[in-house]
Specification:
The protein has 2 domains: 106 residues, no CATH class; 123 residues, Cytochrome c-like domain (Cytochrome Bc1 Complex, Chain D, domain 2, Orthogonal Bundle), CATH 1.10.760. 49% of the residues lie in helices and 3% in strands. It has 9 helices and 2 strands; from the N terminus they run αααααββαααα. A hairpin with a 2-residue loop joins strand 1 and strand 2.
């Protein structure tokens, strides 16, 4: 076993495997052990990370002629050695079959009902804990609307948005940020009349503060990649960015007296 780990091909395989374990399991399960909120990363993002690691591995094995030749030697031998004809033919059959099965599993249609019905617009909890303070969502109002200058709150919300949200939700608040298409589902468009236009500010506060990890069970399965912003932003910063969202999208917040369901913010 030791000689395989000393070979560049074996080392490359170990590094790629460890990277997979770190990205797929470590990011989701290690931070909570230290009290840090986290969530599994989407498969599309995991694939991008592994491709990046693979490129780094190829750069490493090819930066030295002797290491590059040693790295390629087992693969070259399998392809040309007459004594390995059986292994070569097996790989030429098994690899296309494996690729075909993976592709089929991703695109095959299904008529099976989901094991549980997911609520598209999960109801918010009655109260939440925010940075050590309990907030009653049923009576929660945006305190910045009755304090200070709305123009200053708007500008502060603009700063918060462009420092933290634009990469996913986009410059036009349309869910078309630079990273948007790496996620499934894609970030929400605040220009859509089915999102914040239908919501109270307290609901938006809950979704921004708690992010994907804060979705209730009836909202599952839901692979929202949005972090819990309460770990990074103050209460006033969240309220200010909410003001910016409504003003920039041209919508008025709904009130508790208005009828209509709540929606969720990704």
């Amino acid at each position: 076993m030791g000689k395989y780990l000393k070979h560049p091909l074996g080392q490359a395989g170990v590094v790629l495997f460890l990277a997979y374990l770190l990205f797929d399991f470590g990011i989701a399960y290690i931070p909570p052990l230290f009290g840090i909120a986290s969530a599994p990363i989407p498969n599309s993002v995991l694939l991008q990370y592994l491709i990046t690691v693979s490129v780094g591995i190829l750069i490493w094995v090819s930066d030295n002629e002797a290491r590059w030749a040693e790295f390629k030697e087992p693969m070259h031998r399998v392809m040309v050695d007459p004594d390995l004809k059986t292994a070569r033919n097996s790989l030429m059959v098994l690899i296309p079959i494996l690729v075909a099965l993976m592709t089929f599993s991703q695109v095959r249609p299904t008529v099976a009902a989901p094991t549980t019905l997911r609520s598209i617009h999960p109801a918010p909890p009655g109260r939440i804990d925010f940075q050590g303070t309990t907030l009653e969502l049923g009576s929660l109002q945006n305190p910045l609307r009755s304090r200070g200058s709305m123009e200053e709150h708007y500008e502060e919300g603009k700063r918060v948005y462009y420092e933290n949200c634009i990469a996913c939700h986009g410059d036009g608040l349309d869910g078309q940020g630079h990273y948007a298409h790496a996620f499934s589902p894609v970030p929400v468009s605040f220009q859509d009349i089915g999102t914040i236009a239908q919501l109270t500010e307290s609901y938006v506060f809950w979704r921004v503060a708690k992010g994907g990890p804060g979705l209730p069970n009836e909202g599952a399965p839901w692979n929202s990649a949005m972090p819990a912003w309460e770990d990074f932003l103050t209460q006033d910063e969240i309220w200010s960015v909410i003001i910016f969202l409504y003003e920039q999208a041209g919508h008025e917040p709904r009130t508790f007296e208005e009828e209509g369901g709540e929606g969720e913010v990704e």
